[in-house]
Structure formats: C-alpha cells, structure tokens
Design goal:
alpha+beta; three-stranded antiparallel beta sheet; 2 helices; four-stranded antiparallel beta sheet
C-alpha cells in the first residue's frame, strides 16, 4: 500500500507539469540536453524557438547566405534563429545580419566555451540591431575576431 501514495504523487506532479509553463531552469535544460545528448562535435546549430527548440539546421562550415538554397542552411532558416549552439572544438562562430562573403553587417559571436545562447531576444549585433530572428549568415573564426560582441 505504500506504493499508492508515491504513484499518486508522481501523477499529480506530472499533471501540474502539463498545466504550468516551464521555468527558465527547465527550459535551459533543453539546450543542455541538445548539447549533451545530440549535438555533433565540430558543428554549430540554430533553432527557430528559444531554448534550443525548433531545429533549423546545423553546419560544420561557413555559410554566407542562409537563404540562397546553397549549403546546410536553406531559405526557411534565414532570419529565424532564436537560439544557437556551438559544439565547435577549435573555433568560435560569428553570426551576421548581412549576407555575402564580405561578411558585412553587424555580428555577434558564440564561444565554444559558452556552448549555447538559449534566448537571443536580449542580444545585439555589433551594429546595435537585435539578433533574435535576424541571423542571415555565419562563419567560423578565431577568438580574437569577435572583439567584445558575444552572445549571452
């Protein structure tokens, strides 16, 4: 009979979980899970939703235009990222709100040591523009190429 209260407690907690929204700690764990459980080393990832939800794509190279249909990022990914993940092993990822191999426009970097930025709503490109839903390209760079423009 001792098992019945434990079962009822678990069921009640599960029911509350479906009614109450995820806290930031629970939501951040989705990025932790993506980092620990599924992200391939040497790749960067972009997600349509915050907290690493709504997978847009991944890439282990640079892509100067997420909307041109060439490379791992396609038209559906440009200007849609709300969270990003860097599982790189030697370089940082520099994200741009412009396109082209001139790497123009504002940029923001994600360090491999930081791992992920779970919500880009509060981040700004070096130009001052908001990062959320505004990334159009990315490239891999050395740490010093990023200056003080880091995603949080």
């Amino acid at each position: 009979m001792r098992k019945l209260p434990a079962v009822l407690t678990v069921m009640a907690m599960a029911a509350l979980g479906t009614v109450l929204p995820l806290s930031t700690a629970h939501a951040a764990s989705a990025c932790d899970s993506a980092w620990d459980g599924g992200a391939t080393p040497t790749y960067m990832y972009a997600y349509d939703g915050t907290y690493c939800t709504g997978f847009l794509g991944k890439d282990d190279g640079s892509d100067s235009n997420w909307g041109d249909g060439i490379g791992n990022y396609q038209a559906s990914a440009t200007n849609k990222a709300s969270s990003i993940l860097n599982k790189g092993t030697t370089l940082e990822v520099q994200f741009f709100n412009g396109t082209g191999t001139g790497w123009t426009g504002g940029y923001i970097c994600l360090s491999r040591n930081e791992g992920f930025a779970s919500n880009l709503a509060d981040d700004e490109f070096s130009s001052g523009a908001t990062v959320n839903n505004a990334i159009s390209s990315h490239r891999w760079v050395v740490y010093t190429a990023c200056g003080n423009n880091w995603a949080a």
